[in-house]
Amino acid sequence: MRAAGATGPVIAAFTDSLSRFIGGETGLLPEESVGHVVELPALDDLPNRAGFEPSRIDQLVVIKLNGGLGTGMGLEQAKSLIKVRGDDTFLDFIARQLLHLRKLTGRPRPAFFLMNSFSTQGDSLDYLRGRYPQLFDEGPIDFLQSKVPKLEAASLKPVTWPRQPELEWCPPGHGDIYPSMLGSGLLDDLLARGVQYAFVSNSDNLGATVDPCLLDYFADSGLSFLMEVAQRTAADRKGGHLARRRADGRLVLRESAQCPSADAAAFQDITRHRYFNTNNLWVRLDHLKQELQKKRGLLPLPLIANQKTVDPRDAASTKVVQLETAMGAAIECFERAGAVLVPRSRFAPVKGTGDLLAVRSDAYEVTADSRLLLAPKRGGVPPVVELDAKHYKTIADFESLFPKGPPSLLEADSVNVQGRVQFGPGVICRGKVSFCNPSEEPWTVQAGVYENIDVRP
């Protein structure tokens, strides 16, 4: 790891995870070990502010997680370079949101950084430098996510794969942000510049912008860590949820990989576990530094052990274990940590082509400050879109089957598409709609209103 350029804090975090895993720690949180969270403060109930306190904007840094490639959608470039609306990519939205905020406050703040990976750094910075050179006026705007060895499942030694040595490494999850900020020197640099508060979110969530009410609430609360959560819907059953650990009463984040299979039904019960993590997080940087110093440069985040193959495209390749951590899991590492309930408008991620279809449709609107929000008529609930992975998984296939743009989803509850179905202009979906083409030949859905119906050729 040293030879590959890993810093001391990153090495310490990995060796700590490895020793805990070898010691038998599974990271599992059985249902009996956690209680549900009943009530939380809500953003809608916080005092409404029309503007920002200048001193607090100067003490804020906005960090976007930008380490993911679009390989899941057939691309070999930064996922944030996927076109979201028209020719605008995620990075266009992010840059415009930040520049709008700086124009609004009349200040060159908040500070801004991307957490890139080695795979996304070049493309992302070149794109932003070409379109928004003013972002670089005060120097570099990124730091690198680390990489750690994949472990051979049989021996727990670093795997070797000579035919593609790069596959011997994996990202350690977005929980890596904490040792990477420390190891890169960014944490100390921000503190030296008087920056106390960090707002961190995923680059594919365009609803995650700096809200003055949340900034004030976090600054006044004295909390070290604040997680934005939203009300779970049927679409969120498999995502990580907020819970309270019975052993010590601390808030915890439980991901699906930490749930024993026997507890899957309880994990997915949205009436019991009502809140999911949006991965929009607020962190007091001076408090983070104190916690890191207490624990020799690391946060003991819960383990997530993923069982995979060294070549994800070859099921017969060597079985490996990838040790990862989640950024939001740090909620349990701070004595003073909290959560706040936010509207669904602050959560609009794109994880696959189904999400991309939804955000390109009229179910979402672009605001004057470049946020991508659910249309008011949606009542805060997104449409559930399921597209046949055989035909829609890659961006190229997706674009070919929606040559005239997305259908109207403004009044759709769910849309399920199976087979090669091409959509012409003027298709309107309402309620629960499914389209199924059993033939290998493409079938085109013509203009019209489709409401609570199963449509076939």
Write a concise synopsis of the structure shown.
With 457 residues, the chain is α/β, with parallel strands linked by helices.
Any overview of this molecule?
The structure is a single chain. With 457 residues, the chain is of the alpha/beta class. It has 2 domains: 8-346, Spore Coat Polysaccharide Biosynthesis Protein SpsA, Chain A, CATH 3.90.550.10; 353-455, UDP N-Acetylglucosamine Acyltransferase, domain 1 (3 Solenoid). Helix content is 23%, strand content 27%. The strands form 8 sheets. Strands 6-5-2-10-14-11-17 form a 7-stranded mixed beta sheet. The protein has a 4-stranded parallel beta sheet with strand order 20-21-23-25. Helix 1 (8-22) packs antiparallel against helix 5 (177-184). The radius of gyration is 22 Å and the shape is globular. The termini are far apart. The relative contact order is 0.15.
| Number of strand segments | 25
Number of helices: 12
Mean pLDDT: 93
Strand order of the largest sheet: 6-5-2-10-14-11-17
CATH superfamily of the largest domain: Spore Coat Polysaccharide Biosynthesis Protein SpsA, Chain A
Q: Radius of gyration in whole Å, from Cα?
A: 22 Å
Output the structural class: alpha/beta
Features:
alpha/beta; 4-stranded parallel β-sheet; 2 domains; 457 residues; 7-stranded mixed β-sheet; Spore Coat Polysaccharide Biosynthesis Protein SpsA, Chain A; UDP N-Acetylglucosamine Acyltransferase, domain 1; single chain
